[in-house]
Amino acid sequence: MSAERVSVLFWLTVGLISIYGSIHLGLGTLREPGSGFLSFLAGCFICLMAMIVFFRSFLSGERFHVKISTLWEGLRWHRPITIGLLTLGYILALERIGFLLSGFLLLFVVLKGVENLSWRKALLIPFSTLGVSYLLFHFILKATLPKGIFGF
Amino acid sequence: MDFSSNLIAGLSVTLQPLNLTFCFLGVFIGTLIGVLPGIGPVGTMAILLPATYGIPPTTAIIMLAGIYYGAQYGGSTTSILVNIPGEAASVVTCLDGYQMALKGRAGPALGIAAFGSFIAGTFAVIGLQALAPPLVSIALRFGPPEYFSLMTLGLVILTYLAQKSIVKALMMAAVGILLGTIGLDTMTGMPRFTFNLPDLLDGVGLAPLAMGLFGVSEILLNVERKIKLEILTTKVKGILPTVGDWAQSIWAILRGTGIGFFLGILPGGGAVLSSFVAYAVEKRLSRHPANFGKGAIEGVAAPEAANNSAAQAAFIPLLTLGIPANVVMAILLGALMIHNITPGPLLVKEHPDLFWGVISSMYMGNALLLVLNLPLIGLWIQLLRVPYAILFPLILFVCLIGSYVINNSTVDVALMLLFGVVGYLMRKFEYEPAPLVLAYVLTPLLENALRQSLILSGGSFTIFFARPISSGCLILAAVLMMTSILPFIRKRREKILAEEEEDA
Question: Hey, where are the domains in chain A?
Fold first, then answer.
């Protein structure tokens, strides 16, 4: 299936969910629009635009027939997935093990594991980054950073 | 108050040590991110939004504004030295700037870009100061129908200028409106699309949304590719342009200033469009058009003047009408609302220190940028040598912490990552994030204006056409949408965009 049609199906689903949810919220009347009024209009508009793009995808023209796999052809597609998963791991660990440890692990794994930098750089950069960011966020901006189970 | 009184009042705010410090910080960071590819002013402003919570609103806006117009200065450095625009508005500068650098004239190219930006910025701020009071008096006559129509026009113009598909851009604007409705309805108090999550009662935060769509998605896109910058190794010398350079450039700078100023005011217009138009005008007016693309100094002077002038002019609709002209202004609008300040015609009356302080800070900012950009060129060149492999983890980390400290909640961080992935996929499938963010920021104002208008009119949509300003805006919006759909005009537009892409 072409990339265009797949994306359209996604947005069409978003539009339909929005329409359904808006009706549930209540559209009100034109004299007194309800909570779901604007989101209903937005949902209808999304569906309309999605249909236009969908029908347009049947026209001739190279860009309408690009397959999904082509979008990642020749690219290192596993890297964004890796970075995304590492970031997710960081989010889950942040309040459990604390800002300093989770930040260090994230930066170290990315710099050494993903980018394969030298040990010196992979250790020095996280230490200095965490030091500067702790100084900036904790002492200067007075932000509360999570300490985690280890107390730091 | 007259022009000079307003200027003095503004300078008295700008010259306070805190404001001066943050003005410097803003333009420095702006130049830095303008130089470094991989993150732009929108992502940076979103990252620094939480950092502004602890400082006064005037100071916060001065800093954020400095980042925006500072990025226009910085973007020219990479365009000239590396042939990669550090900022979208500097794409056109690559055409002649890099050619000048190859001929050993990187110094004059950088110099004329900096001086041209300074002259343009200064004139634009004077124009801003002169235009703002009369615009405010006109805007005071605006009611809900005018606001609704003007915001609709702004969204349509922004989508009309979309680089890819207009239909997709319109769709993204609608998605932005949908996102903007998440949270409590301000009129009825009913939760909307919160999925029973308490963290969503206040809606989706602007910072996680913008950081995700512009910061994280950019990182995810860039890590797929091998980014290698070929930096010009010749030493940059002779930064001050010669008399001959000035003679060739001065009219280009002045024309670029005018073009940038008028295009920057238009909702949906901005620095990117004005730089393209200024370049095209100079090429058309030149006695030697064949020189363009081969190192014509006017080809650097005009777009750089235009993009900086547009960056300053874009503040006019925000500060006077409360309507952001582009997505950067949308972030600033969000920042003002976070500080409980509603921009609009009453801003000058209720917060004159902020209004005139921000405008006056731009004089100071432009002067600081001239000082920063010329002597520190060596520093910016060194920064360009930092591998992206080191840069992107740092940018990612700052995004993560920035989104966490907003509410001390990992939900915001998770939302940022989610929007980062969504933004990555959006760009892959050629959907633009800018209309989404602009629509998202406008939604609370848009919805209030729509509902109030319908209540006033007893449910009739004719109220939007019965009032001249409102009907004018809607008719113009309809004309733009029709012209985008009509095949022969659409093909012409696509051809022009393709030619510009090819040139760049």
Answer: 3-72, 78-140
